[in-house]
């Protein structure tokens, strides 16, 4: 793995510098979004969830809320599509919901570029090859994000993540950062076909791809697996 030595130092320096400058520059916008979320969805304004970081070590990811906390008669969250608000849909399509993760970058829990952090529930479901996505810090954007985002099947997403781990370079990170705004403006791949976000990843059976399990309810802002 080439994320070591001066290259790793340069990557972490870039991460923290951009994150610090970005948070200061975006603070007026963040304040407006925070107020809008509070008014339309109530508190808390931030969605917090344990995700798997480098080496599979859990950390608490930060995002703006995009869904209501509405429950069904059994006390379980309603499907994502029924709880997603108009503001939440806009925040997701514009990726503004991800901006608070600059705080995770400053903490050293995330990088600007890397595989998206997913819920810890998935850790025992990865095969040995897929698990290599945790050999590096997770990122706000990544190789998978500029090559399909949530429109891809889970196995395609993980293959792109592992490709990034094997081919990482500072130039590749800069390329991904440069292409990310274009992908966001196009608004493609925000959700998986037939889902408001992504279906759950249930593991990949031998010889076949299993994108998810339609019978398992999506958890939305409480347990939403997608990035």
What does this structure look like?
The protein has helices at 5-41, 80-83, 86-94, 101-106, 154-167, 170-186, 220-223; strands spanning 46-52, 58-64, 111-113, 139-141. Strand 1 and strand 2 form a beta hairpin. The chain has a two-stranded antiparallel sheet with strand order 1-2. Strands 3-4 form a two-stranded parallel sheet. The longest helix is centred in the first third of the chain and has 37 residues, at 5-41. The chain is globular, with a radius of gyration of 17 Å. 37% of the residues are buried. Mean pLDDT is 84; it is low at 208-227. It has one domain (5-223). The protein is mainly alpha-helical.
Strand order of the largest sheet: 1-2
% residues in beta strands: 5-15%
Question: Element order, helices and strands?
Answer: HEEHHHEEHHH
**Count of beta strands:** 4
Tally the structural domains: 1
Structural class: mainly alpha
Total DSSP helices:
7
- Nearest-integer average pLDDT: 84
Question: Termini, distance in Å?
Answer: 24 Å
Low-confidence stretches: 208-227
Name the overall outline: globular
- How would a textbook summarize the main sheet? 2 strands, antiparallel
Rg estimate, integer Å:
17 Å
Helix content: 40-55%
